[in-house]
Structures are given as C-alpha cells and as structure tokens.
UniProtKB/TrEMBL annotation:
SUPFAM superfamilies: CheY-like (SSF52172). It comes from the Bacteria. Signal peptide: none annotated. SMART domains: REC (SM00448). The modification 4-aspartylphosphate is found at residue 63. This is Response regulatory domain-containing protein. Residues 9-128 form the Response regulatory domain. The keyword Lipid biosynthesis does not apply. CDD domains: REC (cd00156). InterPro entries: CheY-like_superfamily, Sig_transdc_resp-reg_receiver, WalR-like. Keywords: DNA-binding, Phosphoprotein, Transcription, Transcription regulation, Two-component regulatory system. It comes from Mangrovihabitans endophyticus. One of its GO terms (molecular function) is transcription cis-regulatory region binding. Pfam families: Response_reg.
Length: 278
C-alpha cells in the first residue's frame, strides 16, 4: 500500500476506543510487507486539527460523531484543516443520503462500521491514497509542462538570443550550465524549506546564481532552463509529495530571481561566489 515501500501515516479520528482498536487490528492484517501504516489515534476534532498542523498525514479515517463535533460539520471542519489530505468517513449512522452528502463535502469514501471487514477497510484506505498520489503526479506534470513551454527548449526565437545576440546558455556553456543547475537544485530545496519554517529566504545565494547566469549573457529563458533542469533532479531525489511541494512553491523563487536578473542588467550589479574568485 505504501508507495516506494515507505510507511504511510493514517490519522484515525474516533472517540470509541473499542472501534479504534478494531480499526487498528484490521489495518495490521495484511500479507503485503510493504503496506506499513503508522496510525495516529485521536478522539476529538480539535486534537485532529493539532495533529494535522504538525504531522505529514497521508490519509484520514474520520468518525462523524465526536465529543466536540457531529455530522457533516465534523467532515467540513477537518477538511478545511486537512487541505488536500484524503478523508475516508467511518460512521455507525445509516442515514439516507448521508453517503452522498459526505462525498459532496469532499470525502474520498464512506464506510459503515457494522459492514467493515479487514480487506474492505484496507482497500478503501489504499484507494484514497492512490487517487491522491495520482492527482499529485498530474499536478506535478502540469507544472513541468508549463515550465518547459516557457523554456528555450521549446522556443525558436529565444529571449536570450534576442537579448545578447547568442544562443541558449545550456548550448553555449554545457559544463557551466550543469554546474549552475546543481547549485540551483540545492538552493530551491533550501528556499522551500525556509518558506515552510518561516525563515529568511536565501537571497545572497539567489543573487549569486543570477550573477553566474548574467555574467554569461544569460536571459530569462536561460533561468527557466536552469529551473526546469533542477526540478528534474529534485523529482528524482525526493518522494512524490516532497517533489510536488518543491515544484509548486519553487515557482516563487523563479519569479523572484527573474526580477533579480532584470535588476542585474539594469544596474550592472556583480556578486561573485567565493570559489569563482579564489
């Protein structure tokens, strides 16, 4: 069940201890050695929200009747906090129209407690994760397609050529281009990490890369070429969700560096890396 053999994190929101223990037992019954699931169990909506704030959760198994929330409001509240984490509703209430209402409200699946069997439960959880993974991959593919559409690889009249009377940086300086991509790859990961922990952005390193590109008469499309090549390496080095986060949030870094590159040409700033002047 776990993609690439990794352990998935399931948040079980259930106030009935006996039901919670049964769910854990059912999830543990698997013939697949790679289907490891780590279960985090809470009994209140507010506790679930706290877990979602501090933990990376792959799927939520949610009881609709909790001490501090009941019915569809439980689902809506958890959904608002969980973002795009898939939710499987687990309930003992057999009400007409409730299943459809839950799906309309954003649940991936709906299970009745008295009908649950180990295989059915694991299948519902696995399908919810699988569908979410597929959505992430499609989203990531769309991001890359947008970048490549703008990069020099798909342009016959390149901005770089019109700006400097040359060709694409990746063609003129293949070794230097590859070196810049390696530096950029590390920097975009650092940049996204800084966003998540609310630390200062690595502006000095960003300016250093802009200088490396500018000193070689590179333009906006060259910067996009570097960005796309770096993201290709990121997706090979990181798991799906991590790679998607870097690709999506890294767009902000690319936009900021575009502005820095324009400023580089406007005022002629030069900021060289220490190793380049040693």
């Amino acid at each position: 069940m776990a993609e690439d053999g990794g352990t998935r994190v399931l948040l079980l929101v259930e106030d009935n201890r006996a039901d919670a223990e049964l769910v854990k037992e059912y999830l543990a019954q698997s013939d697949d050695d790679d289907s490891g699931i780590r279960v985090i169990h809470v009994s209140r909506r507010d506790d679930a929200a706290a877990v979602l704030q501090r933990e990376r959760v792959d799927v939520i198994l949610l009881d609709l009747t909790l001490p501090d929330a009941r019915g569809l409001r439980t689902l809506e509240s958890i959904r608002d906090t969980a973002g795009d984490v898939p939710i499987v509703v687990l309930t003992g209430a057999e009400e007409d129209g409730l299943a459809a209402s839950c799906l309309d409200a954003g649940a991936q699946d709906y299970l009745l407690k008295f009908e649950i069997r180990p295989v059915a439960l694991r299948r519902a959880v696995g399908y919810a994760i699988y569908r979410k993974t597929g959505e992430d991959r499609r989203s990531l593919a769309q991001v890359f397609a947008q970048y490549r559409e703008m990069s020099s690889q798909n342009s016959t009249t390149m901005v770089t050529a019109s700006m400097a009377g040359t060709g694409a940086l990746r063609m003129r300086y293949p070794d230097g281009f590859d070196e810049i991509v390696g530096i950029y790859q590390e920097l975009v990961v650092t940049y996204v990490d800084c966003l998540f922990v609310k630390q200062a952005k690595p502006r000095v390193q960003m300016e250093e890369i802009v200088t490396l590109i500018g000193d070689r008469s590179g333009g906006p499309r060259d910067l996009l070429d570097v960005h796309v090549a770096a993201l290709d390496r990121v997706t090979a080095a990181h798991e799906g969700e991590r790679a998607r986060a870097i690709a999506v949030e890294g767009r902000l870094m690319a936009l900021e560096m575009m502005g820095m590159l324009v400023e580089f040409y406007r005022v002629g700033q030069r900021r060289h890396m220490a190793w380049s002047t040693a």
